[in-house]
Design a protein that fits this description.
- It is a single chain.
- The chain is built from 16 helices and 12 strands.
- The longest helix is centred in the C-terminal third of the chain and has 21 residues.
- It is an alpha/beta fold.
- The strands form 3 sheets. A 6-stranded parallel β-sheet has the order 5-8-9-10-11-12, sandwiched between helices.
- The protein has 2 domains: 123 residues, Cobalamin-binding domain (Rossmann fold), CATH 3.40.50.280; 267 residues, tm_1862 like domain (pyruvate-formate lyase- activating enzyme).
- Helix 2 packs across helix 3 and helix 13 runs parallel beside helix 15.
- The termini are close together.
- The structure holds cobalamin and iron/sulfur cluster (SF4).
- Cobalamin binds next to helix 1, strand 1, strand 2, helix 4 and helix 6.
Length: 422
């Protein structure tokens, strides 16, 4: 999948006369190969983009790289934004960038190139310094150059696009929405590109023969109905490529789903997260009924759009019976495909704070892998075996459904499989 953050940063730096490239540390690469790749690129500044899940590897790799190369290192992305103290405490990291990176990174590059101190730059926390102030969110987003596509891994003309930043919903488990809280008092974080700006990027891709399918990576594509309506109208006049997106069931209706289908939308991913209305309402702050999922999934299928859904298992204060309700709802909803993840409390989120305050989170959590298979928490009402039991039922259901659909090498829809991994 694409690393859009670094691709946005690179195009911004290039637009201001600097050179930037992306070294992708893929899972198959050994530490030695990554170090070699960085050495060969011979950077003046090394930027590391990371989510919490990537933190442990990033920390190890940066430590190794710094033993060989005397290059300043700046970390950015979700983990650096919400765990900056831990990042700066690790050997090899000189700076942590909090929040949006384009303007901050440019200023850092130019400050270092001029041999000046980076203390006092907005968004940039210097090792040993004080927490920085944040600059205002970039407005309008159209001001940003298009992401540097040459750095993205997009085979088969499957383009990954971001049309907005920020999500207004208050989900307690979500890292994305925490940007809104981070920027509170600084400026409105929720912004969207204009239709013309998005269409211009698509035109470029189409002209280069690189547009066979679009994955919209926006957190919730369907937030603003008038924007979506106009987008559908304009898109279908010019483009044939099908596309997929993420939505929340509260943000769509039958009419919109038909409009999206007509424009070319062939797949929507919805977060169901739990089968228990109590868990959604009280723990996740998502007061939506199971009936709404039934209705929206039916409308989506009737419009000719595939439905993908996601579920979470093992939330704090969830009971064993509620875990089973989640499985039962997943079985009933019968989607084209679904993902299921053991809950992990991401730093910065409300549920992270709950888990820490209630003693569910081990103190050394940052030295343990952040995965979605085994719970990192010690929960009073739920044992790991309870979670395992339901996880295994989910696994069996998925295998059964794939067999029923006759998934085989010649029937696999590659784009759908790629998209579902989000
Ligand atoms: C697209 C996406 C994916 C894609 C690609 C991920 C990727 N590497 O980009 C795929 C599908 C692979 C994916 C997978 C997963 N994802 Co995801 N994903 C997203 C999503 C929806 C958009 C990311 C994006 O492109 N944003 C647009 C760009 C422009 O923003 P950005 O990346 O934040 O970058 C900006 C700044 O952070 C900063 N910045 C970033 N890097 C750097 C580096 C430097 C040096 C500097 C200075 C600045 C800087 O500047 C950038 C430009 O302003 C986000 C939600 C979100 N809104 O962020 C979740 C999100 C990042 N994903 C998340 C999760 C949990 C996952 C999964 C674990 C899901 C799962 N259960 O399997 C996996 C594992 C991913 C992994 N390897 O760590 C969480 C991460 C929470 C956390 N603290 O780590 C998020 C926030 C979703 C959420 N609701 O909580 N994901
Ligand atoms: S709707 Fe999705 S992206 Fe928005 S806050 Fe909730 S989980 Fe996060």
């Amino acid at each position: 999948m694409a690393s859009l953050g670094p691709a946005f940063l690179a195009s911004f730096l290039r637009a201001h006369g600097h050179e930037a490239t992306l070294a992708r540390a893929t899972l198959e690469m050994t530490d030695g190969a990554v170090t070699r790749m960085v050495r060969e690129a011979a950077p003046d500044l090394l930027g590391v983009s990371m989510t919490t899940r990537q933190w442990q590897r990033a920390r190890r790799l940066v430590g190794m790289i710094r033993e060989e190369l005397n290059v300043p290192v700046v970390a950015g992305g979700l983990h650096a934004t919400f765990s900056p103290e831990a990042v700066l405490a690790a050997p090899g990291f000189d700076f942590a960038c909090l929040g949006e990176g384009e303007e901050a990174l440019l200023e850092l590059v130019e400050t270092l190139a001029a041999g000046r101190s980076a203390h006092g730059l907005a968004n940039i926390w210097v090792r040993g310094g004080f927490r920085p102030v944040l600059r205002k969110p970039i407005e309008p987003l159209d001001r940003l150059p298009f992401a540097a596509r040459d750095l993205l891994d997009e085979p088969y003309g499957v383009a990954q696009l971001s049309t907005q930043r920020g999500c207004p919903f208050p989900c307690t488990y979500c890292g994305a929405r925490m940007f809104n809280e981070l920027y509170e008092g600084t400026g409105e974080y929720g912004r969207r590109r204009s239709h013309q700006n998005v269409l211009a990027e698509l035109r470029e891709l189409q002209a280069a023969g690189k547009l066979s399918y679009i994955i919209f990576l926006d957190d919730t594509f369907t937030i603003h109905h008038p924007w979506v309506k106009e987008f559908c109208r304009l898109y279908k006049q010019e483009f044939q490529a099908k596309f997929c997106l993420h939505a929340r069931v509260e943000t769509v209706n039958e009419k919109m789903l038909h409009m999206l289908a007509e424009a070319g939308c062939d797949q929507i991913t919805y977060g169901v997260e739990s089968g228990s209305e109590r868990v959604r309402r009280e723990i996740m702050h998502r007061p939506v009924t199971n009936e709404r999922f039934r209705d929206v999934f039916r409308w989506t299928k009737e419009a000719g759009i595939r439905v993908i859904s996601n579920y979470m298992l093992g939330l704090p204060e969830e009971t064993r019976a509620e875990l089973h309700e989640t499985y039962a709802l997943a079985e009933e909803l019968d989607c084209f495909d679904f993902g299921f993840f053991v809950f992990y409390p991401y730093p910065g989120t409300h549920l992270f704070t709950t888990c820490r305050e209630k003693g569910y989170l081990p103190v050394d959590y940052l030295t343990r892998p952040a995965n979605h298979r085994k719970s990192i928490l010690t929960l009073p009402g739920l044992a790991q075996s309870d979670i395992d039991e339901v996880y295994e039922k989910f696994t069996a259901l998925r295998v059964r459904r794939e067999r029923e659909r006759g998934f085989g090498a010649d029937t696999v829809d590659h784009a759908a499989l790629v998209a579902q991994n989000g």
